[in-house]
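REVIEWER CHECKLIST
Item 1: Sequence provided? yes
Item 2: Single chain? yes
Item 3: Sequence as submitted:
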Amino acid sequence: MNTPALFRSLPDRQSLAFLVVTFVTGLTAALQTPALSLFLTTEVKVRPFMVGLFFTGSALIGILVSQLLARYSDSRGDRKALILVCCLVGALASLLYAWNRNYLILLLPGVVLSTFGSTATPQLFALAREWRDLSGRSSVMFTSVMRTQVSLAWVLGPPLAFALALGYGFRTMYLCAALAFIVSAVIVYRYLPAMRKTRIVTGEKLQTPRRNRRDTLKLFTGCTMMWACNGLYLIAMPLYVVSTLHLPERLAGVLMGLAAGLEIPVMLLAGYYARRFGKRNMMRLAALAGLLFYSATLCFTSALPLLLIQLLNAIFIGILAGIGMIYFQDLMPGQAGAATTLFANTTRMGWIIGGSLAGTVAEMWGYATVFWCAVAMMTVATGCVWSLKEVMEENDAAAVSATDNITPTSSGADS
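Item 4: Structure as written out by the authors:
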């Protein structure tokens, strides 16, 4: 055995710090997002419409704040300082949620502060790529390993969130999230590299697709509908499980954690089989899995079947998150930045649509009807994806580009 070679293959201190902070910041989102609709209903005591309005407002405010922060980070200063500030402000937001029960304060200053916390993760990906590129090491595999940390966080986070909230109260849950942010801030300050930002000036601007415009529009529509369904599920499922099915509240966290755990092998298998079967067929599989999943959610009312169909949910989100961005890049050759931003916008638009529909529909017709809306939207999405043409990939390396604009998402995540 070549011992020096073995030690060289192990992660160095800074690489390990990136992985730990990615996991811990991912855990903060996985603690807070799954139980948010239940928190608003039981603690803040608002109607379903106001719950949906909260998620819609959060998405709109989040887009604005995150874009301003991303623009600032790309043009000035070093990302380490911004990540540190984001972690500290995220801790402050968690403390606000722990003690405040005023809806408007949670929606306006609360969401603005929490957006800083959620921005830490994409900035970590951006800093990691700059650091690896500067040191002459490949960023592709390291970025993939970082993404698995987010998925692992979503395996543990939702069950832990409901265990803390139901066993010790929502205040304890949010205090744990604040502590996680503080731990992240300490690791960022001590171990992450400080790099002065060098702005690269290019003549290329983000623009509309130069080729495959019709297929790009179909893909944009299909992905937006699919992310909207995921948003509907994350918002409505905890309340549907408790209020409509009268199942244990902890089951919602177990469902989300199980789906996130299954997504990890699905993402890896999707990347492998995409070359063999083509990205179009993989996206078709994702759409069909999503359609079957939301239909099955309406058919089953007991815990075991709901747990089993999480495999369909994992196939749906795992392929969408892993292959969707690459498909955009293949449809828009030479426009990797614009393609990645377009895919990121499908997630944001999906949350806005999902938040608007979830609250309104649940208020008028109940939570079961929310899933009928998901089935309808998945039917539209399946039609869009099914009519796409297959495109040949022009550059495998483009598959992991422009992570600044992507917030890692999951069937438990995705926010």
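Item 5: Key structural point noted by reviewer: Residues 103-134 form the longest helix (32 residues).
Item 6: Recommendation: ____
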